[in-house]
Each structure stands twice: as structure tokens, then as C-alpha cells.
From TrEMBL:
Belongs to the GMC oxidoreductase family. This is Glucose-methanol-choline oxidoreductase N-terminal domain-containing protein. It comes from Gossypium tomentosum (Hawaiian cotton). FAD binds at V121, V234, W486, H487, G515, P526, Q527. Keywords: Disulfide bond, FAD, Flavoprotein, Signal. Residues 279-293 form the Glucose-methanol-choline oxidoreductase N-terminal domain. Disulfide bonds join C423-C478. InterPro entries: FAD/NAD-bd_sf, GMC_Oxidoreductase-Related, GMC_OxRdtase, GMC_OxRdtase_N, GMC_OxRtase_C.
Amino acid sequence: MNLGWWWRLFAGALAGFLFFHGFAATETAPNYSFMYDATSASTLSYYDYIIVGGGTAGCPLAATLSQNATVLLLERGGSPYGNPNITKMASFGAALSDLSQSSPSQRFISEDGVINARARVLGGGSCINAGFYTRASDEYIKQAGWDGRLVKESYQWMEKSVAFEPSLGQWQSAVRDGLLEAGVMPSNGFTYDHIYGTKVGGTIFDQQGNRHTAADLLEYANPSGLTVFLHASVHKILFAIKGKRRPKAHGVVFRDTTGAKHKAYLKQGSKNEIIVSAGALGSPQLLMLSGVGPAQHLKSHDITVVLDQPLVGQGMSDNPMNAVFIPSPLPVEVSLIQVVGITHFGSYIEAASGENFAGGASSSPAVEYMNNLDETTFRGGFILDKVMGPISTGHLELRTRNPNDNPSVTFNYFKDPQDLQRCVQGIQTIEKIIESKAFFRFRYEFLSWPILLNMTANAPLNLLPKHYNPSMPLEVFCKDTVMTIWHYHGGCQVGKVVDLDYKVLGVDALRVIDGSTFNDSPGTNPQATVHGCEDIE
């Protein structure tokens, strides 16, 4: 996997990176002078760069490019500021449970039957995730062909801006020590680095429990060079075809909340481009809606084909997550992901505790189920296993021509047997943690390991039929209880849809810059790499 573009795109924008490192923020969130609702947009406008999607990738990229150019950033959601369901750690999960049209989280259900979510807010996934911050591994960086020095500098800047060392409570400490007893060695203490063993990672929540998101990085933008429109739904990329050797992206059509249509075009200039950063669902979806995708599929939706590109929407992957819930006889702290065990067999073991994780159940049956449980049930937490990679892949297709509707996506969890074996080994490691001396006081003796597995298997974690009982192998448990950890990726992959510079193959003036270009997920959580790397483009 060669993702060298992340570290060399737009050589001229390196000045923006130096600006980030050498100067203070020019404006303070949330009082951005350049941020407006899309209803105030003019019918027609012109910019050097148009970025579709103000998420984990789009925000830092817009801030960087605004140093030397005029930039339009279009975000379909609203502002994260002033919403405690986003900004406060204690409210984690509330946004995921909010199924309203104004929610910062848009629920979707994959064809596999797994309930999932996509961000719909300025700042993207960094506004609704569990906040864990960790770097990609040295091996990943080397295989990607990235400049190691620039990678390190970019990470260091990010860590000064939006990453913090968490305060470990008793539950997380017990999980850390249990991992070491289970043989996930060595103990690496607190570190942002991705290294084998057990570590305490970073968090984007500060000591007061306030979330710091990618939207905060807009503080480093040049206010005179950036325009941000919220509630701006991009319906189509416009291509100039007549007289061109091949199609050239030159504008976008977007609508505001009243349904009014707006058009934004690129100014004349050889380097001016449209950059799609709409996420692993939104980016391949928008390419298809714009006529770049599998010709027969586009024709079935009455979409004019600009470029027959059958690999758009292919290679979709979601890292499987399986968890075991452990009720505790003792009160536990409210904590999100802080400790991780990075194993040699290809799984990451993490944990969350306290009552706030109940809100993370993104299905209506799960919310109803949890609301009916006794309060003492939430004295406990989850220990979870995330499969690295993964190897299994699926595909994405359009359901409708409305960009606000979810596309159809299939991830094919555990289709590859190696993914399934990694899950089994991860669950076996969780058993060792629960049986460890370090974790003993946080579990009831009468709740044996088979009972704990059965409790989890009977919870409404997904929409799949239930098969598991304690006499069955762990492979069945993995398949029956699979969930998402929201690290899905693919659909516009390097070498298939975009080249090594992330330019869309077969057209001009169009790039895709986000997790849709990944073949697998970097580190135990991709957010550091996705928005850290944007700062040096």
C-alpha cells in the first residue's frame, strides 16, 4: 500500500504546515468569521479549491490550503459547538442514539445486518467517536512510502493541539494490568506510538472532559482565504467535457436546507481542484452521483456516465468489533478507550466503562433494552476486540440519487477466515483478562465466563439471527455478536480509483482525500493519521 501522497501533495502548501507550527491561531472556535449557513450562499461563486466534506480530513486540509488560496469548504451537517452531546465526554453515545434529522450522527445499517453510523457535522467522526488518539505503526508508515520525518512532525503538532494524556481510573488500570497478565507484553506505559504490547494511548478529551475535534483546527485557517458553509448538501460534481482530452472537474452543485440550488466553480488556474473528503460512504457515493462509477449501475439510476469506473465503491471494509460485557460489584469510572493491547496475532484489545456507553447503542431495540435494565447493571463495562485490517472486503452501491440518503453497503465481516481466527484469539485474550488477579474485584464470582458470553450474545447488538450458546465454538460467538467500531474505509482506493497522488484516475482536477482511499486502517484508531497528515500537504 503506497500512500505517499499524504505526505507530498501540494508542495506549495508546505508553507501552511510551517505556519501551523510557527504561529498562533488566528481565530478562536466557535466564533469563526468565515463560517455561515448555506442559506446565505450566493447562487454562483468561484474559488481556487472546493472541498466537499468538513470532517476529520477536510477541516485541516481547508485550513492549510487557505494560507495561499481561496477555499470553499462545504459541510452537510451543522456546527459541533454548543451541543453537549458532542462536546462533553460524559454525554458520549447520546449523539449516536439520536436518530433525528438534525443529529450529528446518521445511522445506517449495512447489508450484513450491522448497525453503524456516519458523521453529519463539522469535524466529522472526531465529533462522535470515543476519542482515542494513537499513531500508525512504523511498519505502516514505511509500507506507505511516507516521509518519516514529516509524519513525526505532523503527529507532534497534532499532539500539541488536540491530544491529551488521560487520567486512568481503577477499571482501566485493571484492564491494563490484566492485559499484561494475559501476556500482551511488554508494558509500554503512556505513548502515542503504535508498538506491540500494552499501552495507555492519547485522547482528544481534555482533563475537564471537553472534546477537541478537527473543527478546532480551523482556528489555524487564514480567515480571508476560507469560506465554510454548513448544511450544504453537495448533489453533484460538474465536469467540463467539450474540447477536453478527458473530463475535467470544474464545479459543484449544492443545496441548502430550503432546497435552494447553489453552484460553485473553480477559478481559472492549472492547480485549482475539487477535493472530495466526504468519508468512506460519502466519497464513492458522490463520485457515482456525478457520473464516475460502474456504467451499468449508474445507468440503472438514470445517471449520465462521465467515466465508466467499475472500481468506485469496491474494496469496502469495516474492522469487526466484538465485546464482552462484565457487570461489576463495584462502582466504576466513566471511561472511554484509554488502554489498548496491541497483539502479535492481529487484534487490538480495548475497554470502556460506566453508564455512558449505554448511549452508544445505536439501534432502537438496543436503546430500549438498555433503558429497561436495572441501574446497577451499568456498574461495569465492555472489554472489546478489534480485528486489524481487515482482510475481508465488500462493496457500496447507490440506493437513490439523493446524496442525503444512505447508499447500500456490504462489508462481508469474517468472509476471510483469518479475520475470524483473529477474533477468536481476541475473545480468548479477553477471557484471560477477566480471569486475571488484577481484574478479580471487578467481576462477580457467580458470573462465569460462559455466562458472560451468553449474556452478551443475547443482547440486541445487531440485526443478525442468533445461533450462539455456550456449547458452541467462539467462531459462532464472533459471527453472531459482530459490531462496528466505526473504522470503515475503502471505496476509492489507491491504485484503483485514485493514483499515488490521490488524483481520480481518468479525470482532471479532482482528488479524493479521506479514509475511502485506505486499503486497511492505520493504527488502533485512524483519526490521528487522517487529520494529522493533512497538515503538511
